[in-house]
Amino acid sequence: MLIDQGTKALALAQLSEHERIPLLGDCLGLQLAFNPGTVMSLGSDSCGEAQSATSSTDCAPGFGRGHVTDFLAYGNLFNGNLSEVILGAGAALGILLCLRGHTPHSNH
Questions:
Q1: Cβ(48)–Cβ(58) below 8 Å
Q2: Is the model more confident about 41 or about 10?
Q3: Measured at the alpha carbon of residue 31, what is the angle toward residues 26 and 37, in degrees to the nearest 5?
Q4: 29: which residues sit within 8 A by CB, 6+ positions away?
Q5: 65-98 per-position pLDDT tens digit
Q6: Long-range contacts of 3-6 (CB under 8 A, 24+ apart)
Q7: Dmax over Cα atoms in the chain, in whole Å?
Q8: What does pTM read for this prediction?
Q9: Helices (H) and strands (E) in the chain, counts
Q10: Minimal CA–CA distance to 32: which of 68, 65, 3, 62?
């Protein structure tokens, strides 16, 4: 959570909503964005439950109803932040483990 909040604070201090810094050409860059939706700018009409409580307090209009600070621009598709990358990697790993037939060891 500290890394997530730290990267968002750094993005607020160093990035602009109007200028993108390319990292991988047009595919990936750094650009400040404020997202009222959930993960990867989806569901922008509401603050969904998948959104963390700390993310929704980042910006106006107020506690638990705020906009998420995003700074990773994926082409012209959507914007995200580091916590979403970590959630996505965890979900992908979980799916991969399920597909490989891995089950948690039980104590029985």
A1: no
A2: 10
A3: 105
A4: 20, 21, 22, 23, 72, 73
A5: 568 899 999 998 889 998 888 999 999 999 999 9
A6: 3/82, 4/54, 4/55, 4/81, 4/82, 4/83, 5/54
A7: 57
A8: 0.63
A9: 2, 4
A10: 68
